[in-house]
Q: What sequence folds into this?
């Protein structure tokens, strides 16, 4: 018997046991859908993470006051679920720290900055926004922001500002244009640039000190360091830590009162967390697949019993054992294939829905949950892999029933009622 004929008989068995087959297929659909949803959401989150971290600049390190080993900015504007409260009281960063950082070999640029909140008014509309004071002489060399209109701040600018793209588009509906006059905390400023994105307002640091409350005359909220060689990032972090400890009179690491963070470290931490989450959810999905495989085996055993007499007839007219086995293997593979297709469709729909709902409920995009608000990603390799896997699961589950069918004694099979 040719394989084509065995396949046709397998299809015939499949369509003549619809209810039982579809109940089994539902189990496979649920398992495959769970796998597809988990993997696609994970890939989408990974893609979004890489895009956000690339925007931070792999060659830019950030020094902040206060020590915490789990500290970082992984929330990207929201709460960080991995941050912990510092056990060492924060000591402000100063111009002395900036001078120390400039002496490190792999450091190209150093910029201290201050930040806070302020009210911005334009055309009668007032809103609160983040304000960042920067050193205009080096800001354009160290920032990861990109200008969409106008220019960066330059040395000599005083009451000039560069607005984050999100401030212009979301808060003021793109009404603010270059050379517009805006009011920040009662002071008039000229808009000289607008960035592609970002939710902060940038101005010269000396002006920011004047309009922001609780900002000292010689202190910085953070210090940004741009390094020359990204491959030496870890070594540079160690150098920075060592030099700052010496300059600040800190003898033991447990007394460190500052933190040095880099996008590479944040990406590694987030990647480990996401991998753990994906593995955990994948294990849950695997249980559904096991249940589906058991269902296939049960269906195939029942099908063998129902077709015992037919198997006896086929053997009596010369059908070989391997042909009988192929028929039932093809049948179980069909169940896996249909379950895989249904699982891909359901899994994609589920992942899209989850990502959309996450985007709505985490409108701030904060923390790990905010990562789920990105688009789910289903690659061609994932589709092919899932289909092959579902077929393989079906054929493995049906292997024993198929083997038993092929070994039936034709005389006993013909007598079977």
A:
């Amino acid at each position: 018997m040719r394989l084509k004929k065995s396949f046709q008989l397998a299809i015939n068995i499949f369509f003549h046991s619809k209810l039982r087959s579809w109940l089994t297929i539902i189990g496979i659909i649920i398992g495959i859908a769970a796998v597809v949803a988990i993997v696609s959401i994970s890939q989408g989150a990974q893609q979004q993470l890489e895009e956000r971290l690339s925007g931070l600049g792999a060659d830019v390190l950030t020094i902040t006051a206060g020590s915490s080993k789990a500290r970082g900015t992984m929330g990207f504007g929201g709460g960080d679920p991995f941050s912990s409260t510092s056990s060492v009281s924060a000591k402000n960063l100063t111009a002395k720290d900036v001078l120390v950082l400039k002496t490190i070999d792999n450091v190209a640029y150093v910029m201290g900055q201050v930040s806070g909140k302020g009210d911005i008014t334009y055309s009668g509309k007032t809103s609160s926004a983040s304000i960042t004071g920067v050193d205009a002489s080096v800001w354009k060399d160290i920032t990861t922001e990109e200008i969409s209109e106008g220019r960066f701040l330059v040395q000599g600018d005083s009451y000039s500002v560069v607005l984050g793209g999100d401030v212009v588009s979301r808060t003021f509906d793109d009404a603010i244009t270059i050379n517009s006059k805006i009011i920040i905390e009662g002071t008039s400023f000229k808009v000289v640039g607008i960035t592609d994105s970002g939710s902060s307002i940038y101005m010269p640091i000396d002006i920011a000190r004047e309009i922001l409350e609780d900002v000292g005359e010689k202190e910085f909220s953070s210090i940004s360091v741009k390094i020359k060689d990204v491959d030496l990032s870890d070594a540079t972090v160690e150098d920075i830590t060592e030099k700052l400890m010496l300059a600040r009179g800190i003898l033991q690491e447990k007394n460190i009162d500052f933190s040095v963070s880099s996008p590479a470290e944040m990406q590694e931490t987030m990647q480990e967390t996401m991998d753990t989450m994906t593995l955990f959810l994948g294990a849950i999905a695997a249980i559904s697949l096991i249940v589906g495989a058991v269902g296939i085996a049960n269906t195939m055993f029942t099908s063998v019993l129902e077709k015992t007499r037919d198997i006896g007839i086929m053997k009596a007219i010369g059908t070989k054992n391997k042909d009988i086995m192929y028929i039932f293997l093809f049948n179980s593979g069909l169940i896996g294939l249909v379950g895989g297709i249904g699982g891909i469709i359901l899994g994609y729909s589920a992942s899209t829905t989850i990502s959309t709902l996450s985007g709505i409920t985490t409108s701030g995009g904060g923390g790990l949950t905010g990562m789920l608000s990105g688009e789910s990603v289903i690659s061609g390799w994932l589709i092919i892999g899932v289909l092959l896997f579902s077929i393989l699961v079906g054929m493995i589950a049906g292997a024993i029933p198929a083997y038993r069918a092929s070994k039936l004694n034709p005389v006993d099979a013909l007598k079977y009622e």
